[in-house]
């Protein structure tokens, strides 16, 4: 170790970070200055990765929680050559690779998109779970560490409670988190909002906690050594740091630890930007330069890391030679390729709730997909993910051979953890809860959509037909919220989420097939609590007919020259089939019925196909147990949608169907009224 070069490197990171913020006239310099010492020691001496293959599956991973400290990460990675001087100078600008908050970019070292505080370290815990899961299956190959970086705001954000509990309960000894504790928040000092004992809190959750001076390199090394030696607990390293470490006034006097240094350029504070650069050893005329001594040192660091990775690769190669069958399985896991599956072979009972149908599929997947982790928020026997659990086992401390995570009542935490599992790679994450509680999940669903992660959401009890549980448990607006994500494009130009509400048990099997094969975005499976009448097959195979759902929508009942086309998704499809039978029998009408499992997917089909299902300029009628907006994008200028524009009430589901007009008889009356109005 060389104290001089270590101090110089940390100061170089500080100078680069504040230069980025100053040039952009936007950003957060103070925290980056405080965290520079820890990041330099971690990256130069402890974090194991291959600089020539940043996406190497066996690398250590660093998950940033405090996304506003992006300048710290970009500055650090620029010392490895992952960002050019021009990249740093374009910080927060259009088209740059250095956005204001980090966006997942593994080839440059950015493991996760972060910004909403708390979710970053939750994703880190998810990655640690994935690593433990894989390590239990491949003879200690996945022994890498997951590092996290959190700040005062992230510790305060409520999700940290769920993350802390789960990580401690599972004994995630491969997770090491640095808490940059500088006593300063964006708008106040921390003592104005909190007086808790963070050490005692994390110790109560089962963590190892180490308190250090976050600027003392010897203490940082000792803490990291102790954390890496820990075999039973996750570790929290609480580093007391100074906000704006190294800032000075125009006269050269120190000006550190001030709240104003948090969230605006140094030049807009009482500190002097040029004098601060000089104090850090930088040249104000070329402040984006890497110091020559630091560049020489990091050239050696890169060579050492590359050599260490090569040695580990040789060990892995020898293991593969000795274990060809396991090696093949491991490569399949890491590639994301599924085994051969045939969900048409899943036996579905007649006229069951789609949550029950999903349970049957999950039982099949438990036996055929070995790299899946299913998680439920204390509802596995209600959301029917116990179909998977019955053929697997619960993840436990020192035993990750199972595939089921009992998350407890922590929907947001569970969903953010699933994002981390997906980011790690090699494992397929599934999370489940009641649809109404997806409200707790939305921030993490949104980040999954932004990061294009193939997480699967099982969302049951999908409508007011939850019945006796009353309005707190009856989804009304949730489907509209979820389907908005189908309308938002991700940065790849595709719909950011696939929302599927199947019409019966067989369509549920097809929906699961669609979800499993959707490897580029999250998928929401929206499932019923109550039993649903099966959609009648028009030929010899209902499953084969239901595969048309892969186009987003299809006719489940077709006749030539129909007088009207009815459409819905989920349980309302069966309701409309019942209404169609009444209209044909009592009113001599010719009726088509369509199941539109996903509007977003349906609208990606050709215009000809769309109009073959929902004809343009003809009578069309939609029915939804949620807000009418769920289907209004499909009705054209003359169609009509009947939905629910109010909260539910506590009563048996059948009573609510009658009171709200969601039985075949009531639907038929609405349809006849619409036909009369259209004449």
TrEMBL record:
InterPro entries tied to this protein: THDP-binding, Transketo_C/PFOR_II, Transketolase-like_C_2, Transketolase-like_Pyr-bd, Transketolase_BS, Transketolase_CS, Transketolase_fam, Transketolase_N
Keyword Ribosomal protein included in the entry's annotation: no
CC terms in the record's Gene Ontology section: cytosol
A Gene Ontology BP annotation from the UniProt entry: pentose-phosphate shunt
Pfam family membership, one: Transket_pyr
GO molecular function: metal ion binding; transketolase activity
Catalytic activity: D-sedoheptulose 7-phosphate + D-glyceraldehyde 3-phosphate = aldehydo-D-ribose 5-phosphate + D-xylulose 5-phosphate
Cofactor dependence: Mg(2+); Ca(2+); Co(2+); Mn(2+)
Gene3D superfamilies: 3.40.50.920, 3.40.50.970
Enzyme Commission no: 2.2.1.1
Top EC class for this record: transferase
Domain Transketolase-like pyrimidine-binding: 352-534
Keywords: Calcium, Magnesium, Metal-binding, Thiamine pyrophosphate, Transferase
Protein family membership: Belongs to the transketolase family.
Assembly and interaction partners: Homodimer.
Matches recorded under PANTHER family: TRANSKETOLASE, TRANSKETOLASE 1-RELATED
Protein name: transketolase
Species of the source: Flavobacterium nackdongense
């Amino acid at each position: 170790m060389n104290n001089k070069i270590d101090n110089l490197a940390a100061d170089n990171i500080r100078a680069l970070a504040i230069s980025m913020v100053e040039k952009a006239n936007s950003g957060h310099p103070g925290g980056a200055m405080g965290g520079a010492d820890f990041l330099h020691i971690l990256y130069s001496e402890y974090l194991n990765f291959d600089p020539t293959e940043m996406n190497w599956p066996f690398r250590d991973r660093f998950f940033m929680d405090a996304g506003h400290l992006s300048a710290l990460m970009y500055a650090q990675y620029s010392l490895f050559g992952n960002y050019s001087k021009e990249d740093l100078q374009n910080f927060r600008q259009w088209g740059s690779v250095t956005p204001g908050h980090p966006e997942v970019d593994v080839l440059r070292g950015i493991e996760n998109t972060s910004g909403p505080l708390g979710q970053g370290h939750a994703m880190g815990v998810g990655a640690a779970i994935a690593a433990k899961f894989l390590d239990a299956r491949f003879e200690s190959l996945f022994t890498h560490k997951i590092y996290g970086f959190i700040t005062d705001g992230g510790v305060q954000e409520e999700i940290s409670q769920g993350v802390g509990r789960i990580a401690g309960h599972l004994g995630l000894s491969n997770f090491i988190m640095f808490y940059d504790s500088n006593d300063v928040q964006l708008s106040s000092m921390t003592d104005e909002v909190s007086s808790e004992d963070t050490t005692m809190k994390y110790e109560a959750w089962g963590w190892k906690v180490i308190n250090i001076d976050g600027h003392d390199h010897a203490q940082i090394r000792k803490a990291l050594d102790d954390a890496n030696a820990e075999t039973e607990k996750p570790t929290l390293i609480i580093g007391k740091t100074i906000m704006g470490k190294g800032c000075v006034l125009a006269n050269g006097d120190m000006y550190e630890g001030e709240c104003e240094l948090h969230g605006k350029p140094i030049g807009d504070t009482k500190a002097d930007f040029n004098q601060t650069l000089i104090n850090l050893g930088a040249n104000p005329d070329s402040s984006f330069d890497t110091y020559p001594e630091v560049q020489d040192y990091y050239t050696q660091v890169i060579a050492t890391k590359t050599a260490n990775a090569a040695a580990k690769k040789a060990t892995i190669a020898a293991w593969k030679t000795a274990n060809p069958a396991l090696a093949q399985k491991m490569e399949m896991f890491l590639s994301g390729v599924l085994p051969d599956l045939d969900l048409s072979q899943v036996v579905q009972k007649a006229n069951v709730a789609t949550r029950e149908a999903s349970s049957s599929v999950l039982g099949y997947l438990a036996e055929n997909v070995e790299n899946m982790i299913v998680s439920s928020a204390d509802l596995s026997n209600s959301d029917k993910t116990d179909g998977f659990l019955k053929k697997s086992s619960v993840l436990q401390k020192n035993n990750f051979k199972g595939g089921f995570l009992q998350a407890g009542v922590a929907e947001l935490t569970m969903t953010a953890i699933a994002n981390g599992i997906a980011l790690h790679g090699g494992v397929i994450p599934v999370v489940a809860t009641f649809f109404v509680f997806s409200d707790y999940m939305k921030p993490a669903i949104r980040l999954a959509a932004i990061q294009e992660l193939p997480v699967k959401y099982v969302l049951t009890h999908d409508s007011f037909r939850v019945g006796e549980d009353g309005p707190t448990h009856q989804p009304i607006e949730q489907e509209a919220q979820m389907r908005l994500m189908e309308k938002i494009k991700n940065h790849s130009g595709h719909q950011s989420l696939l929302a599927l509400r199947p019409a019966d048990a067989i369509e549920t099997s097809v929906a699961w097939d669609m979800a499993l094969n959707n490897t580029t975005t999250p998928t929401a499976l929206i499932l019923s609590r109550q039993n649903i009448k099966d959609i009648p097959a028009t030929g010899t195979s209902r499953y084969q007919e239901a595969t048309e759902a892969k186009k987003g929508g299809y006719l489940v009942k077709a006749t030539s020259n129909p007088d009207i086309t009815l459409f819905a998704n989920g349980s309302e499809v069966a309701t409309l089939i019942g209404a169609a039978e009444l209209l044909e029998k009592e009113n001599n009408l010719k009726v088509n019925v369509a199941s539109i499992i996903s509007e977003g997917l349906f609208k990606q089909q050709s215009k000809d196909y769309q109009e073959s299902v929902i004809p343009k300029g003809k009578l069309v009628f939609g029915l939804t147990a949620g807000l009418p907006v769920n289907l209004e994008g499909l009705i054209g200028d003359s169609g009509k949608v009947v939905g629910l524009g109010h909260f539910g009430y506590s009563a048996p589901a059948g009573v609510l169907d009658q009171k709200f007009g969601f039985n075949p008889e009531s639907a038929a009356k609405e349809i006849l009224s619409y036909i009369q109005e259209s004449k």
